[in-house]
Amino acid sequence: MTHPVLHDKLRQDADRLSEALEHMSKLFLAPKEQKTLRSFTTAEVAELLRVSDGYLRKAHFDGRIPEVTQGPGNKRLYTAEEINEIRHLLAQNAKDPFQFLPGRRDGDKLQIWSTVNFKGGSSKTTTTVTLGMRLALRGYRVCLIDADPQASLTTFFGYQPEIDFRHGGTLYDAIRYNDGDTTRVPITDVLRKTYFPGLDLVPGGILLSEFETETPTALSRGEQPVFFNRIRDSLRQVEDEYDIVLIDCPPQLGYLTMAAVCASTSLLMTIIPERVDLASASQFLTMASGILEVLHSNGGIGSYDNFAYLLTRFDTAISTQQDLAEWIRELLGDSVIRTPFVKSSAVSEAGLSQKTLFEVDLAGTKNRKTYDRALESVISFSNDIEVMIQSAWGREVKRET
Ligand SMILES: Nc1ncnc2c1ncn2[C@@H]1O[C@H](COP(=O)(O)OP(=O)(O)OP(=O)(O)O)[C@@H](O)[C@H]1O
Ligand SMILES: [Mg+2]
User: Fold this and answer.
1) Would residue 73 be called left, alpha or beta, if left means φ above 0 and alpha means ψ between -120 and 50 degrees?
2) C-beta separation of 270 from 127 below 8 A
3) 70 is in which domain, residue-wise?
4) What is the pTM for the complete model shown?
5) Are 297 and 347 members of one domain?
6) Which of 25, 54, 61, 134 lies 20 to 30 A from 8 at CA?
């Protein structure tokens, strides 16, 4: 009797499964869901443009900005495209056009933020995608990079990474090592526009895990650039196209995370205020510091603009979380972003269908109060991060409440 070889059997089963899954998704799943963005009220647009409701109404009345559709009760509703158009029209006629255009000016350095923590489920992806959308709505040119083989960030944009990018099309193509005739491609080859104005995506996918396994051999044969320069290098090709790049890292301190960290000008560490999460955060910091010290002496990251901690999935109803949050603030001081990302069923329910708070249908929202509270938290911590970005560009921004 012949025994089957294990790896052959696993490969056969894997091929069978993935073919069947692909077939099934073609047959049964709705065609790739066309994602849509909700419309925004006058109050929301006023907040985004940092003007008053009255200012907007007058601008419409004077004909300085085009009229928009009106919803129930004759209330104006703006699409993200319209907000951008209005932003540029108002800037053209403003005494200080920069009041409406918060992005980079001559000499400002591209801001690259990586979201890190090797604690799985600490809201890295949710934070990255929500922050990215908020910054795009504020008028920044944003690029999101999915550096996680799990590719959760990519699914937020209507992709099924295991099918859509099975053979390529992810960040991996832009950072991979030489293999015969196959070499890395410019990042522009894998960069995609999204349905969200001002927001582009470099998808992730399972192929990225090859980077973890290939790096040790690439290091031993001395292939250049070394792993920690590969994301940094690829981003140079699109340096002028964006104001802000956000990189979503996998929940581990592997080569991908280190490459993201070394490409970054700032880091955002998500922490759930729970004891176990704090313990793992502390472990992450110790390990990262050890590795960065070695990399630093080899030309890796040396200086950075911001290292910020964001308390995530913060349940204000749990007193131990409140106490821990307080304690973290005392310990880590100003590095802790003032407003936490609160735990909210509005976020997790939207997440179930790969949506952020900016995409859910408000008319069908059961609990509007819960939604508003979650959105308020997003706006608030995003504003805090915006202040850090502006200060990296040498601009002081008055932080509103
Ligand atoms: N503020 C929040 N309130 C409620 N649920 C949240 C919140 N943030 C994230 N979640 C939920 O927690 C789960 C994990 O979030 P997410 O995928 O963003 O974490 P992650 O750190 O990226 O995970 P991984 O380590 O696997 O990459 C998801 O189901 C998400 O919907
Ligand atoms: Mg994630």
Assistant:
1) left
2) yes
3) 40-99
4) 0.92
5) yes
6) 25
